[in-house]
């Protein structure tokens, strides 16, 4: 399966992946998903937003696994697809072991998890559980001005009706398992995080004839804001990143008239996130006053802390022989489903580079196979009722 996926959407120059939703590479991956399901005799269901689930086992209360197939711009190979491939491989292993499910098992591929095209992280899963309405999402636009409502019809999803439990496997996006020398772990929680748009307005002018003291330059305000974000995050022990910027008119010989920049902020608690975001905005406004510019900050998406289901987590840790338990600073579809009331757990596989959202992201075959074994063990217990059966039963009822 991995050999089939590896070339799709890969840049010949950087080696990174461009798998943005509803564009050619991601559509090819969706076709691959359907073929993989068909080869296993699984029935594929698609909702109005493009989320896919391949089902195995009897109708009734369901256990869901899977991840996503899209990538960030110039992303790594493993973020998302490893979870989908591992889910199919775990299902294969369960069949080889003769597992007889009493609950239905679904392998999911959620759409637009990264938010790399329409700017809303975990958009597919948010729409599937109703955390984001179609009326709100339909007007989202990509960088070329294409509306989401012109790409898909939308509507209402029933894809997750009856889903009692969700288990997602993902490549680790940090160094926790490297430091613990463990191939597989379990996530305990997702840090609070948000995306904030900074609109900084100034005045366009000539780069040569305009004296430095006469300029109203929004780029200066942005530059100091980016430095402030770095400093505040370091001082407070949190995370802050300006990773995207749009400059108008974007001319080499012109002072900009407008800068739009996006801040990604993450922290260990909701209070810490609020403190970090407030400190960065305060310094941006103070700098704007000195530059003669204006700053408007808009929170485009904010997610609070998500603690994964403790009973499910503890049951899986015990079943897997006491693997490490760590929080994650990365957002996932698993967090959206947990927030929607579906008991959720996350397994993660060691990434020897410790790097993610990058062509340098990696995973070793032996660790990936250990992840498949762990996922198969976890899912076997869930679909037969041996693990957290009371949790699944309550939700499904």
UniProtKB/TrEMBL annotation:
<keyword id="KW-0378">Hydrolase</keyword>
<dbReference type="InterPro" id="IPR010158">
    <property type="entry name" value="Amidase_Cbmase"/>
</dbReference>
<dbReference type="InterPro" id="IPR036264">
    <property type="entry name" value="Bact_exopeptidase_dim_dom"/>
</dbReference>
<dbReference type="Pfam" id="PF01546">
    <property type="entry name" value="Peptidase_M20"/>
</dbReference>
<protein>
    <submittedName>
        <fullName>Allantoate amidohydrolase</fullName>
    </submittedName>
</protein>
<dbReference type="InterPro" id="IPR002933">
    <property type="entry name" value="Peptidase_M20"/>
</dbReference>
<comment type="similarity">
    <text>Belongs to the peptidase M20 family.</text>
</comment>
